[in-house]
Amino acid sequence: MQNDLKATITHYLEDRVSAVGFAPVARFGDAPEAHHPAAVCKNAQTVIVLGIEVPRGVLTSPGYNLHTLHRAYHTVYRQLDEISLGLCNFIESQGRHHAVMIPSYAPMAFHGAEPWGLISLKHAAVRAGLGAFGRSGQMYHPTFGSRLRLAAVVTEAAIPGDPLIESDPCPPKCRACQQSCPAGAFAPEGRFEKMKCLGHTIKHAIYPLALKDANGLKHIERVINTAGYDYWLACDECLKMCPNNR
Question: With contact defined as beta carbons under 8 Å apart, do 230 and 72 qualify?
Fold first, then answer.
């Protein structure tokens, strides 16, 4: 029965997404309590991770690379949210199991000024066998590199997981992302520092106005999850330089 449901879901998604993986909730034992799948879906048993690729061409656009990447990201985010909502309803139509969508981008939860997904989609993707972490801190799929945008569905249905990818996705001795990063978002030992990257890369016209004082920052979660949803990208050097994305 569980394998039948997995095959049914995979068939439902096959023309809608570039990649799909299944992860039993037991694989999330080290997830923070507030961002564990069980915090999203009562009696959670399985996380289904969906990915849609961003075309390689946007990374080579000679004049409008960031413009086209911006629109590709935000188009895919909306597409993934529609697909994951549809998948929840599809799963619930198959029987008694509940399902809850995990947004592809917003709304997010904030810890201070640091944004967190409801669950970490890149960690979920690794635990669902879609890829492995590279030196940049990104998740790399064997075919699509780090060009996948992700969403997920958490469900009470117990579905067999996919095999994990254990191999290092980065070419030996490759440091292209670290050497090309204009934000200096890599510590000397190579550890990726997320907030340095976000501060340099993610821009929005409303942020300087809405978040300029303590009262604005008190509402940072509301601002960014509503008015600040369609952010601008100011950098994608690590994506362009990575051999896995070519």
Answer: no
Token duo for residue 193:
């520092």
pLDDT tens per residue, range 166-218: 999 999 999 999 999 999 999 887 789 988 998 899 888 777 776 677 777 77
Sequence-distant (6+) residues with CB within 8 A of 119 are: 28, 31, 35, 36, 37, 39, 40, 47, 102, 152, 154
Average pLDDT of every residue of the chain: 93
Please classify residue 109 by burial: count the beta carbons closer than 10 Å to its beta carbon, then call 0-12 exposed, 13-18 middle and 19+ buried. middle
The vertex-193 CA angle with 246 and 54, nearest 5°, equals 30
- Determine the Cα–Cα distance for residues 51 and 99; give it in Å rounded to an integer: 18
Residue type, 183: A
Cβ neighbours for 139, distance < 8 A, ≥ 6 positions apart: 122, 125, 126, 130, 131, 132, 133, 146, 148, 150
